[in-house]
Write a structure and sequence with these properties.
single chain, mainly beta, seven-stranded mixed β-sheet, four-stranded antiparallel β-sheet, 11 strands
Length: 120
């Protein structure tokens, strides 16, 4: 059974930082593109960042230069480092995995989500 378990969400002030982690189990991690989506109240879920097995990354325009994504294949974990946070980054953040994907545009698996709240 595949599980994606997020951690690291919480409350931050504008301009601050948070680091999200997603621990994966039940899959061959190195064969999956990993990424992060977010969904704010009243809005559609959107892809924030993705990282292919080969190291190719994708970032939404709204987070370029502020967020970085990385993976540790030995720990089956993907990270999202979020710097210079803005109130509009407030959302539930979901970890996602796509088999042999590139940008995680069509995930096969989802995590349960972790809340990120940025105060002004």
């Amino acid at each position: 059974q595949v599980q994606l378990v997020e951690s690291g969400g919480g409350l931050a002030q504008a301009g601050g930082s948070l680091r999200l982690s997603c621990a994966a189990s039940g899959l061959t991690f190195g064969n999956y593109a990993m990424g992060w989506y977010r969904q704010a109240p009243g809005k559609e879920r959107e892809l924030v960042a993705g990282l292919s097995p080969g190291g190719r990354s994708y970032f939404a325009d709204s987070v370029k230069g502020r967020f970085t994504i990385s993976r540790d294949n030995a720990k089956n974990t993907v990270y999202l480092q979020m710097d210079s946070l803005k109130p509009e980054d407030t959302a539930i953040y979901y970890c996602a995995a796509e088999w042999r994907g590139t940008t995680v545009g069509n995930p096969d698996y989802w995590g349960q989500g972790t809340q990120v709240t940025v105060s002004s």
